[in-house]
Specification:
Arc Repressor Mutant, subunit A; 2 domains; five-stranded mixed β-sheet; 16% strand
């Protein structure tokens, strides 16, 4: 049986890649839990309950092209492991939540705070977007990091050691918990970060951008068809928020299904097919 070493602080972050960066940047006395999900898209209704978790998994399986059958083979196991680790956090250990200015992480920290609502631990938040700006931006150097995953490990370490973590008051914790309840009741499958709030929008929110890019992009083979991956890559570069490429690929397929795009190839991944605007 593997015995876990004692740790001083627990760090909660959305995504396994940002968790990897934190593990590299922080010392071995820090425990990092990377939640294996992206909260910007997909249903989050009653996600704090088993029924909501099953509903989300079914939606992800039915709509998104995960690599290597991730949603069929890995997602449920990793989710259960992360939830178990969160539940097992000892009451005397401080908890640090990491989040940038984006719908994924801002939804995530509200979810985490709801999950730990019965715990009396000291809970702090590090806003990596704001902390990066304060620590590194100057009059001659300006860089914007909307997501924790875009920040290098040594800079995450400096944020933590530089006391960027801000402890939450009881009132603030209750407010975040209530905001999670509102998000959970709201339904919908796409969220954006706007005016310092997580807002639910229609899942076709980015369709007009996708169509505009496709209409103005030079085709790949001289046949009028453009690789779906090129359209999605261009869209990611134009969207201010952090969006899942899998969700945008899903929307490209929806435009195919609705007859707006023609398709060549099999849409088993964004690299395997091309699309063209259907002629009137």
């Amino acid at each position: 049986m593997r015995v876990e070493r004692p740790y001083q602080t627990v760090h909660l972050v959305c995504g396994e890649s940002p968790a990897g960066s934190l593990k590299v940047g922080l010392d071995r006395h820090q425990k990092v839990i990377g939640f294996p999900d992206f909260f910007g898209d997909g249903p989050v209704r009653h996600l704090d309950q088993k029924s909501g978790q099953r509903q989300r998994l079914e939606w992800l399986r039915d709509h998104l092209n995960g690599q290597d059958d991730y949603f069929e083979k890995e997602y449920e196991k990793r989710l259960a492991k992360a939830l178990k680790e969160i539940e097992a956090i000892p009451r005397e250990v401080p908890i640090v939540l990491w989040s940038g200015e984006n719908a994924d992480e801002q939804t995530g920290i509200r979810y985490f705070l709801y999950l730990i609502r019965e715990k009396e631990n000291v809970v702090s938040i590090i806003n990596t977007t704001i902390a990066f700006k304060k620590l590194y931006n100057t009059e001659t150097f300006q860089e914007f990091h909307p997501h924790t995953g875009g920040v290098e490990p040594e800079k995450l370490q400096r944020m933590y050691l530089g006391n960027a973590a801000r402890p939450l008051t009881e009132v603030e914790r209750r407010r975040y918990e209530q905001e999670w309840e509102s998000l959970s009741d709201m339904g919908g499958t796409l969220r954006i970060w706007k005016n310092q709030q997580v807002q639910a929008v229609n899942e076709n929110y980015y369709d007009s951008l996708i169509l505009s890019i496709a209409a103005n992009m030079t085709d790949d083979q001289g046949d009028g068809f453009v690789k779906a991956a090129r359209i999605i890559g261009e869209a990611l570069g134009r969207i201010d928020d952090v969006v899942s490429d899998m969700f945008l690929e899903y929307r490209v397929r929806c435009l195919v299904y609705s007859g707006i795009f023609e398709i060549k190839g099999i849409p088993k991944s964004m690299m395997h097919y091309t699309v063209s605007m259907k002629e009137e």
